[in-house]
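--- STAGE predict ---
source: upstream dedup step, 1 unique chain passed
mode: sequence only
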Amino acid sequence: MRDEGAPRAALKRERVRAYLLGLVDDRRPGDAIPSERTLCAALDVSRPTLRAAVDELVATGALVREHGRGMFVAPAKITQELVGDSAPAAAPQAPGTWSSRVLEFRRTAAGARIGRRLRLSPAAEIFHVARLRLVDGGPVGLEYLHVPAGLAPDLTPRQMESGFYRYLRAERRIVAARAEQSIEPTVLSEAEAELLGVPVLSPALLFDRVTSDPDGRPVEYVRSLYRGDRYRILSRLSLGPTGDGRPAPDASREADWWGTVE
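--- STAGE serialize ---
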């Protein structure tokens, strides 16, 4: 039987993780992060909840721990671009019947970190949505979406379950044209693993994406976790001249990723 506390625990840990990432964004590599005691008091959470979020950020390379000294912002990562500017933002939907189940839906202030992603003031209102993604009824992903309330003031949980991009096109006349997305390996916490039906510390893919309309206006910021045993990335690369010695028509690197952003 599914633990009804799992969604609540996952959402609390996500709140702590988002706060810690805000601290990372405001600091430079090597800068110290406040102590566990200070953070637990500021966030009103237990040490196990805080440590679970810290463990994830250490595993993904955002923070480093130094025994006897504390936590610090990790060195900047080496970034390898996979998608050329000419590659389309959309990708074919993976096989199977996709559906969504909303776990949390609320209207709130963007805050500094999300505001930067969406090019909004920290006080601007957004919709924060947590939803479970399923294929043929089985859970494959956990998504945290942030949508500017000004673009979709009548957004509802039902629309997030029936097709967000479809709603934007049909009801708001907004087209999701381009996306900038990073992909990293990670592992699942106990609460996330419970929601996705896999063992604790199972491998997963972490997607971080900002989607924009044709004018470059951000329409969503999404952080997604997809099961490593159910999701893969397929890249197609144009590396050089064709067989007859002529340059390839498009020498930019392209990537298709299995899944759906709908």
